[in-house]
Write a structure and sequence with these properties.
Elements: H1 3-6, H2 11-16, H3 35-56, H4 63-71, H5 77-80, H6 85-88, H7 94-109, H8 117-124, H9 131-154, H10 161-173, H11 177-186, H12 194-198
Helix pairs in contact: 3-4, 3-9, 3-11, 4-9, 9-10
Length: about 200
């Protein structure tokens, strides 16, 4: 085998530690969520939005490519940890955090054997993403956050009431046909109990 294929790399070991990084760290959670869980859910939602875009709306998009990129959308948090939204998107920090994520992405890619680096760069580096795929992933990210907030409210945790309102406002502000279709077709089922889901109500 080529040397580059067998050289030691900690890249995937870093990714495996995303399960230890908690999200929503500034808030009391009824059910804690880690970055690995969040990444999986965003990938599922992004894939759904891409399938709607392709098969319902007739757009040229590859759901598998979108899902792969969505899986890696927060990969740099294996190094940085989860930056809370009030910090990450504050006017003073927005530029700094964007630069940090870019630098960490490059640092992580350098951990890979050169032969596989281009494939992972295409998945991890947000600058490599086609605009249509980036929009779908951002929409899925917002959807995942809103569904998390809604779940916390169902568990009686009013800590997430304001976050739910703010995230939903962002979804409505950036509403797309894909998101509207997803919410109309699948959204209400998230409010059901397990028994209701099993009964197909």
């Amino acid at each position: 085998m080529p040397q580059s294929a067998v050289s030691h790399s900690p890249f995937y070991a870093h990714l495996s530690r995303l399960r230890f990084i908690k999200r929503w760290g500034l808030m009391r959670n009824a059910v804690e969520e880690d970055v690995a869980q969040h990444s999986w859910e965003v990938a599922i939602l992004a894939h759904a939005l891409a399938v709607i875009a392709r098969d319902v709306l007739g757009k040229q998009v590859d759901p598998n490519s979108v899902a792969t990129r969505a899986l890696f959308h927060d990969a740099t948090e294996a190094i940085t940890g989860d930056l809370p939204t009030p910090v990450k998107y504050s006017p003073a920090m927005r530029h700094a955090t964007a630069n940090l994520e870019g630098e960490v992405c490059e640092e992580m890619l350098r951990l890979l054997p050169e032969s596989v680096r281009p494939a992972l760069r295409a998945a991890m580096d947000h600058h490599e993403w086609p605009d249509d795929e980036a929009r779908l992933i951002k929409s899925a990210d917002r959807l995942a956050a809103w569904l998390k907030c809604r779940a916390e409210l169902r568990y009686g945790n009013t800590e997430f009431a304001q976050a739910a309102t703010q995230v939903r406002a962002k979804i409505d502000e950036h509403m797309t046909p894909e998101v509207a279709c997803f919410l109309e077709t699948f959204g209400s089922a998230y409010e059901l109990t397990l028994d209701s889901l099993m009964q197909g109500e």
